[in-house]
């Protein structure tokens, strides 16, 4: 067992040696893998939170209602507020724990992987 700090709280973790057995016991048949769509949606929420479903759909270019329900059911995203009648979502402590992060500050920088803003806007250089 090990003790880790996550969002100013302490959590007990099992040894990596027994992670498979402990995970199987806790999940009891549930699939722990996320689809590519779920991973992409989760990334948008993580980096842009708080964010509405509509905003996530706009970034991804597809409807994300069912994916957001899946992520919410798995405890990875949660409602964090409301703006203009639309619910806003953010990641949970469960998300941080599964990603092995203490806070959202541990998310890697996206800048090296993004095109220049002018290229995205179609203005070119």
From TrEMBL:
Record's Gene3D superfamilies?
Answer: Winged helix-like DNA-binding domain superfamily/Winged helix DNA-binding domain
Question: Which keywords annotate this record?
Answer: Cell cycle, Cell division, Chromosome partition, Cytoplasm
Q: Which PANTHER family match?
A: SEGREGATION AND CONDENSATION PROTEIN B
Gene source species: Demequina litorisediminis
**What InterPro entries does UniProt report for this protein, alphabetically?**
ScpB_csome_segregation, WH-like_DNA-bd_sf, WH_DNA-bd_sf
Q: Where is the signal peptide?
A: none
The answer to keyword Cell cycle applying to this record is yes
On the tree of life, the source organism's domain of life is: Bacteria
Matching Pfam families: SMC_ScpB
Protein known as: Segregation and condensation protein B
Q: Does the keyword Cell cycle apply?
A: yes
């Amino acid at each position: 067992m090990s003790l880790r700090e996550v969002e100013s709280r302490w959590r007990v973790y099992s040894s990596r040696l027994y992670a498979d057995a402990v995970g199987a016991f806790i999940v009891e048949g549930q699939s722990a893998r996320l689809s590519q769509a779920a991973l992409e949606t989760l990334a948008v929420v993580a980096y842009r939170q708080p964010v509405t479903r509509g905003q996530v759909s706009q970034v991804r270019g597809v409807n994300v209602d069912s994916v957001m329900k899946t992520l919410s059911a798995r405890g990875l995203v949660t409602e964090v507020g409301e703006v203009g009648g639309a619910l806003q979502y953010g990641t949970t402590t469960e998300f941080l724990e599964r990603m092995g992060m203490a806070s959202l500050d541990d998310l890697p920088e996206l800048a090296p992987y993004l095109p220049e803003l002018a290229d995205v806007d179609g203005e070119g250089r």
